[in-house]
Design brief:
This protein is α+β, with helices and mostly antiparallel strands. It has a domain of 65 residues. 23% of the residues lie in helices and 25% in strands. It has a four-stranded antiparallel β-sheet. The longest helix has 10 residues. The radius of gyration is 16 Å and the shape is elongated. The chain starts with a helix and ends in an 18-residue tail after the last helix. The structure holds zinc ion. Zinc ion binds next to strand 3 and helix 2.
């Protein structure tokens, strides 16, 4: 199955590929090691940016970076709704019946 952008961002974070170089109340700078290149990603003047070719605020690097930050984002933003399409992680496992 193809890895979704959300899954990829979680993997980047888990693999230590996100390096925060500067964090402030209205500014975040980071280096994100992608699958093929290293990108400079960050948040400045109210906008996310990344040097990867995707040219979108929803690339996997910025998704990974956002997982590490507490920048006050509006609820219901596009990058948040992506998560709601994933199966819940905390559902109880089916109980095994002894035979
Ligand atoms: Zn990117």
């Amino acid at each position: 199955m193809r890895e979704s952008a959300y899954q990829k961002s979680r993997r980047y974070l888990g693999e230590g590929r996100v390096i925060l170089t500067q964090v402030g109340p209205d500014r975040v700078d980071a280096i994100v090691r992608g699958d093929s290149a290293i990108h400079a990603a960050g948040y400045r003047n109210g906008a996310w940016s990344c040097t990867c070719p995707a040219r979108t605020a929803n690339c996997s690097h910025l998704r990974a970076l956002r997982l590490t930050t507490a920048v006050d984002l509006p609820r219901g933003a596009p990058w948040e709704t992506a998560e709601s399409h994933l199966p819940a992680h905390n559902q109880p496992l089916p109980t095994e019946t002894p035979r």
